[in-house]
Structure of Heparinase II/III-like protein:
Amino acid sequence: MQRRTFLAGSLTGLSAGLLVPDLAAGATGAERAVDEDFLTLLTEANEAQIPLVLGSYQNASDSVRTVARKARRLVSGHVWARSAFHHDSTLLAPLKALADRLAAMQHDDGTYDSGNLHSPPDSAFAIQDICMVWALLDADAQPATEPHRAVLEAVLRKAGPALASGGVHTPNHRWEISAALARTHHLFPDRRYAARIDDWLGEGIDATPDGIYSERSSTYASEVTNPCLLTIAWLRRKPELIAYVRRNLASTLYLLEPNGEVDTTGSRRQDQTRVRDVWWYLTQFRELALHDRDGRFATVAKDIERRRTGELGDFLAEVLERPELAGQLPAAVAVPTDFVQEFPAQHLARIRRGDRTATIFGGTDFHDIPVIASGLSTNPTFFKLRTGAAILESVRLSPQFFSTGHFRSDGLRRTGPRSFRLSDEVKVPYHLPLPKRYRRRDGAYALTLDGRFYASMDFPHRPKQYRTLKTSVTVTEVGDGFDLTFELGESEVPFAIELCFRPGGTLTGVQQLETAGNHQLVDGTGAYTVGSDRIEFGPGNGATRVTMDPGERYTHLSGSLTPDGLRVYLTGRSPSRYTLRLRTS
């Protein structure tokens, strides 16, 4: 296959409004009409990006991934006959500057720095874009871009061996490198590249039975892994990989919020406390909608297009590269909007009733790996609720028990058709004298962990006396909201329940505390209102002093678990049984 057939004539075919190959039809040769509205959307979105790139392409602080993405945006408009920038000569010098920058930033070993030094996976993110840029320019075959292609080809040939021999840091990096190698191999074949892809795939795809990947990032990891698996499936003829993407997208349907956000509470990555939008998934949902004739996926894709959030212009390059992605979608089928959906592998449940959604989470890694570290789920939020624009971002509980920190449930147990229980038992030891056989005359005992701190005490060999705190939270769906019943016992400690609402609304019925953003509900009922959407909460449980103790793991390094937003505290003292009523309207 000549490289110039990489796009299978898509630049000409799409521009002329010709039929595109039917992705679901396979070898039958069936075709489907182009979705003109989709192409117009991507074209306009890309046209809006190009002036921004022209105003910033000389930014010296840009990472290699940013430089490569800017080049991709320019090239998409330059080669696309429907673009206002089609073959615009004013793009050539900036594009050449970006290409030269990519060459200058590359190390002799073929890798780039991008936070990490000489990083194969970070390089792979950029290399995927560079492959697309080179292929689009090559298919366009304009003499004016021959110097650009020569620079980019040298970059790709230099990077390939580094990706084929280098290592990774995270699970999704394996698939990013494999996809970059698949693209590079398709353009400049090298058996080493194919062999390395097979090595990584031989480890197995890290998908749970829930359809969520091992990093449990319902956005970040999926945004990386799904496109990479689809690229490998396409270029390396491995259609079995599509099943993982299908299952992930099907699971995502139950994590979607009505406004297009995706719930990330169970994540082990950076997004576990961030707001992420489904626009990143546009071509994933579109491809599987076309492949499977799945109207649910078509509905999500069309909703992304309708809302027009995010950098949708970035997808133009993918569609020029694979014109079947611009096919007319199957008839829309409603996505689930009335359900109780469990994700057992991450101890998470989602409940949706139209415009009202809730998340219940008991699956942090804290009980198996009691540390705070990147790659672990340690977010102490165990409940979220929203109705329309009124959003309760988190509910957290902090008992003052030997500075052991927030309540984090050890799993999630369903107790009824609409109820779940979260529970935890924390035991803190008092250490007794060492048995004589472990004593040392010099008093130089091993530096060991007590569970909260280290000391030269040889803690493992000491008999212990324990103080215990048992905590459970039962979440029950009621007609117009939820009841959260808190039970704390065996030790007498003060505690605080923290409700954090997204900024933008108004709180009533609460008292302002000294710290900005902090409020307390002492008695009666409070409310958070955004327009006509409202969440009522209460009753207040008294005026005990508010203390949210994140635990010694955080305070030792001056860390904080204070969430951003409007915070309301309800307080009490164990032993206690208290029901927090949350009602929506």
Summary: The CA atoms of residues 77 and 85 lie 5 Å apart. The two ends are 61 Å apart (CA to CA). Residues 120-140 form the longest helix (21 residues). The first strand starts at residue 20 and ends at 21.
